[in-house]
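Narrative progress, year one. The postdoctoral researcher (J.K.) led the effort to move from monomer predictions toward full complexes, under supervision of the PI. The following entry was the first complex the group processed end to end, covering 268 residues in total.
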Amino acid sequence: MDKVPILKLYGYLLISIQTDIHDLTIQALQEDILTTIRNTGARGVLIDISALDIVDSFMARTLRDTVLMARLLGAYVVITGIQPAVAITLVDLGLNPEYLYTATDVNAGFELLHDLVADEDSRRYEEEVPGYDDQQD
Amino acid sequence: MTTSRIEIREEGDIVEARRAVRDFTKEMGFGIVDQTKVATAASELARNIYRYAKTGEVIMEEVEHPRGVKVTFRDRGPGITDIGRALGEGYSTTAGSLGMGLPGAKRLMDEMTVESEPGKGTTVTILKHLS
């Protein structure tokens, strides 16, 4: 069974799924991602699936669950590179994309992650320090 | 008439089945979206074979009148006791309910038939017309 590597980049995690992967491999990857978030304190995870031309319900479900689980650990996940035919098929299958953060490519994905983490930080400071926002100007 | 057969024996065969189905539909001249839909449906049904029956076979064929692809998934597994329920009939299809297995495959194809006998096995056939 091939293991999908998790790269660390500027406090974020980067995963690129290069080939059509088996059920067991994607499940192991989910566990690896969550463990690595816990161990590194990463606030953002980028999963690039631009090489996947087939994404079925099992893969979609596992990715979606990973997004939700990562939120519980305090990290945002952005999925990048969904191919158009895959997007059409997933919507036909009934996938609800509302809770999913996506971007066209890795660059756009990192920008989105950065914004999501920055937004969360600014909201957090507002709550902790009353009047913090007033002090800014 | 071209046919092609894949045996499902281990977990890795799910991926092999969907790749083979994709290649088959590509050869037939299906566009990329239809190739993806048929291959994805095949993945759902091949997984069903592996998960419920452990072993089975996937057979791809070109059909005529109208021209299209027919893929048959056959196993000698436990069978389905309530086919209607397995197909999700009677369940409200709320937006955002990800169809898995049989209901998922049905959404992606033009036609689907399910024959099953508890204790004997299951045969699922899916069809996509070439437009």
